[in-house]
Write a structure and sequence with these properties.
With 534 residues, this protein is of the alpha/beta class. The chain has 17 helices and 14 strands. It is 45% helix and 12% strand. The strands form 3 sheets. The chain has a 6-stranded mixed beta sheet with strand order 1-2-11-10-8-9, with helices on both faces. Strands 4-3-5-6-7 form a 5-stranded parallel beta sheet, with helices on both faces. It has a 3-stranded antiparallel beta sheet with strand order 12-14-13. The longest helix has 24 residues. The chain starts with a helix and ends with a strand. The structure holds 6-O-phosphono-beta-D-fructofuranose.
Length: 534
């Protein structure tokens, strides 16, 4: 099905458009049958009702006995208690004041110069939102604060970020924002500790450069308090990491960079007002959730491919990957039945992907549906003296749109389904709208398939196992240092038996320690028969 009079007529019949929001949702290339909405109406009404209860402060995350309040962040007047309302508004005011003071130089680095670089340390929901928003909204010359991120415990990554700051000669004027809701995430702690050590090596009083965004009373909060860090901003238990972009997690870095956080909040609030309405055909979040349900059969049978035709939205798919997959990827439904739910999300940007995986999308396994994001306004600035026509009457932006429409048709011809989301332009307001739209679509979809979107029990298993590996390493190093340890070294199997660890994990840990010069290794063939000593 490429563009024909039949597709035009379906386009007109199914189009959602909102002039005030500057947004349109085209679901005409999802071949749902005529009675689809009628059949799903009771379910979506139940989802609206659950969302309504959630917004009123119900315990929407029963496992953790928590309210779910990211919608209040942009409409504090809707928060269920005075205390929450007050917390949101005072934090926003504090962010405004702090960002203003830093940006104007009213608050300086300890050397008396204005802060000129911002390093954000966090992971998952405490990094993806700030990264996504900054890439979408900042200008390459976003003066006066440059920005970098650390979002892992990879020593190479940590060093790369520190070297970049060093290369710019900005260590003494770097402000470090450490973000962790729980305040105990090891990757974040490690990056923070390495950064603090780096500041100390430079003779700098690091607490006067460091700011914490974290839950009150968390390990990070206590540390920041004990060491008298420059500032502390709260994270609340009723905001989930993956829906925290419009809390201090996202607002503080954005404000420090000079992005318009109030427009972002206003965009999200406007989208919330529209998507709160329990009228399916007039609710773009409900339409999205229902399209996902149709495409995946309510069981994640197809993947969601995000194709924004806008370089600045490159990180949208990574941001949505966490939002969608951590929310929907669940073993059990709310009744405790095994359902193994989820929708896999991946993507990058068009038309770059035309030259990468679109080949498979058109001709390979048909196990996905695409969401195209179209931005009507081509550019924010004009660097050239005159707008350029790359061919008579044609601009680069015309080509970008041509590739979007061409790819959509090429996929439709081969029965590859797609949704198109069109926004007038990419601004703080429209970005806030996109964030709010997807947050609600995920919540509604979770209700449709009967799962809790607001917990993430699955991520704990890997964290616990990692702690076990570190404990095994400690036992191994102790065993290697024993006075009775044979001088010629010991095999992984022998050591595993001594420390009561799995031979495979023991072998992997020993190899890592040896590769980093922390123990000695006498190589043997086969590899796993090598001998290790302290
Ligand atoms: O903000 P925190 O507590 O450091 O957590 C970071 C991320 O880790 C997770 O808990 C998953 O491991 C995410 O849900 C969260 O966004």
């Amino acid at each position: 099905m490429s563009s024909t009079s039949a597709t035009w007529s379906r386009f007109k019949d199914t189009l959602y458009q909102n002039t005030e929001l500057g947004l349109a949702l085209d679901i005409s290339r999802i071949p749902f049958p005529e009675d689809f909405f009628a059949k799903r109406e009771a379910d979506i009404q139940a989802a609206f009702a659950a969302m309504n209860a959630l917004e009123k402060g119900a315990i929407a995350n029963p496992d953790e006995q928590r309210m779910v309040g990211h919608y209040w962040l942009r409409a504090p007047q809707l928060a269920p208690t005075d205390e929450i309302r007050e917390a949101i508004t005072t934090t926003r005011a504090k962010i405004d004041r702090f960002a203003h003071d830093i940006r104007t130089g009213a608050k300086t680095a300890p050397n008396g110069n204005p802060f000129r670089h911002l390093l954000v340390i966090g992971i998952g929901g405490s990094a993806l939102g700030p990264q996504f928003v900054d890439q979408a909204l900042s200008q390459p010359d976003q003066a006066p604060m440059t920005l970098s991120f650390m979002d892992n415990t990879d020593p190479d990554g940590i060093e790369a970020a520190l070297k970049e700051i060093d290369a710019q000669g900005k260590v003494a004027t770097t402000l470090v924002v450490v973000i962790s809701k729980s305040g105990g995430t090891v990757e974040t702690r490690n990056a923070m500790l390495e950064t603090a050590a780096y500041f100390r090596d430079h003779g700098l009083d690091y607490p006067r450069h460091f700011v914490a965004v974290t839950g009150e009373g968390s390990q990070l909060d206590k540390l920041a308090q004990d060491e008298a860090w420059l500032a502390r901003f709260p994270m609340w238990d009723w905001v989930g990491g993956r829906t925290s972009e419009l809390s201090a997690v996202g607002l503080l870095p954005a404000a420090l960079r000079g992005l318009d956080i109030h427009d972002m909040l206003a965009g999200a609030a406007a989208m919330d007002a529209v998507t709160r309405r329990p009228v399916t055909r007039e609710n773009p979040a409900a339409l999205l959730a229902l399209m996902w349900h149709y495409e995946t059969n309510g069981r994640g049978e197809k993947d969601m491919v995000l194709l924004p035709y806008k370089d600045r939205l490159l990180l949208f798919s990574r941001y949505l990957q966490q939002l969608v997959m951590e929310s929907l990827g669940k073993e059990f439904d709310t009744q405790g039945r095994v359902v193994n739910q989820g929708i896999a999300v991946y993507g990058n940007k068009g038309s770059t992907d035309q030259h990468a995986y679109v080949q498979q999308l058109r001709e390979g396994v048909n196990n996905f549906f695409v969401t195209f994001i179209e931005v009507l306004k081509d550019r924010r600035n004009l660097l050239l003296k005159e707008p350029l026509e790359v061919e008579p009457g044609v601009t680069s932006g015309d080509y970008l749109q041509g590739f979007y429409l061409g790819t959509r048709d090429a996929l439709s011809e081969k029965d590859r389904h797609s949704i198109s989301l069109t926004i007038d332009e990419l601004t703080p307001r429209s970005l806030g709208m996109l964030i709010a739209l997807y947050e609600r679509a995920v919540g509604l979809y979770a209700s449709l398939v009967g799962i809790n979107a607001y917990h993430q029990p699955g991520v704990e298993a890997g964290k616990k196992a990692a702690t076990g590996v570190i404990a095994l390493q400690r036992r191994l190093v102790a065993a290697l240092r024993e006075a009775t340890a044979p001088a010629e070294g010991q095999s992984a199997e022998t050591l595993a038996a001594k420390v009561e660890g799995s031979p495979e994990l023991t072998f992997k840990v020993l190899e890592h320690l040896a590769a980093n010069g922390r123990i000695n290794k006498a190589p043997r063939t086969p590899w796993y028969d090598s001998r290790y000593r302290a």
